[in-house]
Write a structure and sequence with these properties.
mainly alpha; 3-stranded antiparallel beta sheet; elongated
Length: 116
């Protein structure tokens, strides 16, 4: 498995390019969470946020199950947060393309528009 990853690194432009892409994806998602007038919230202080796992909650926590269910209909799965923490968690590891994050952000905006 490691060999396959190491073979793929140069094809993606090397570690620097992967880091740049990951930062772009993370910024896109965190901005969608932070700039929505409180409908979505990130429980993690900005200075220590992860580039790979982005947790968030809804202002109206009773909508979280519906959010996960509706996202699954759009083939966005595994968004449910940890059972002891709640909320949602988007894992945007190296293999997650920018298009996947863009799809999630668009879904979040539509969901907010329907439930704000």
């Amino acid at each position: 498995m490691c060999g396959l990853v190491f073979e793929d690194l140069p094809e993606q432009g090397g570690l620097g390019e992967i880091e740049k892409n990951n930062k772009w994806k993370t910024d896109l998602l965190y901005n969608a969470i932070d700039e929505n007038k409180g409908f979505y919230r990130c429980p993690v202080e900005k200075s220590v946020r992860s580039l790979m796992n982005v947790p968030f909650t809804l202002e109206k926590s009773e909508l979280e199950a519906e959010f996960v269910k509706e996202a699954a209909k759009e083939k966005m799965v595994q968004l449910k947060g940890h059972r002891s923490v709640g909320g949602m968690k988007a894992s945007i590891y190296n293999a997650m393309p920018l298009a996947g994050v863009e799809k999630l952000v668009a879904f979040m905006k539509d969901f907010q528009a329907k439930h704000a």
